[in-house]
Amino acid sequence: MKKRTKKELDQIFGFMMEKFPNADTELIYHNGFQLLVAVILSAQTTDKQVNKVTDKLRKKIKKPEDILALGFESFEKSIRSIGLYRSKAKHIRATSQILAQNGCHIPATQQELMKLPGVGEKTAKVILYVLYGQPVVAVDTHVHRICNRLGIVETTTPLQTSKLLETRIPNEYKQKAHHCMILFGRYLCTARNPKCQECKLQNLCNYFISQQKK
Question: Hey, which residues are catalytic here?
Fold first, then answer.
């Protein structure tokens, strides 16, 4: 598959930004530590479910020391409606112990963020993008799906997409691309029954074209 031209990429990202002009994270948080906790909790869990859980925690958990003071069992119990809650509770406690020792400084580089327990590449990039405004793209299943449907990449895994994507997005779109792509995949170009009738990218969409041939 040949690379998308600049004109085609302008059409793709222009439409996404037209559709979601105020795209932002749907996680609710009041400071960097709360964001980090929410993003760790969000792995394989919807933002809506994370917000339900953190809504009850935000008033009493504002810094790493609050997690430690709450106690592991109490914290684990408070997030038990989240998928993989046991391992996430352990990671968040361990990360809180580290951050409590450095004045709750949230690292501003991917390398340093990924040293924290429970922080992988995707989580690190979300923090860099949302908290520090860095023009990176965290590839989740939504981003992986739409990038392949629209021919921005031709990959089989989110990891492969992540390695290629930032070289394929024109510089002028990088600052806003992350959340526009996530919302586009979450609400329009869904895995099942995508809203193709609302999309202006049918001429570039491998999925739509393949469906028309059936």
Answer: 122, 140
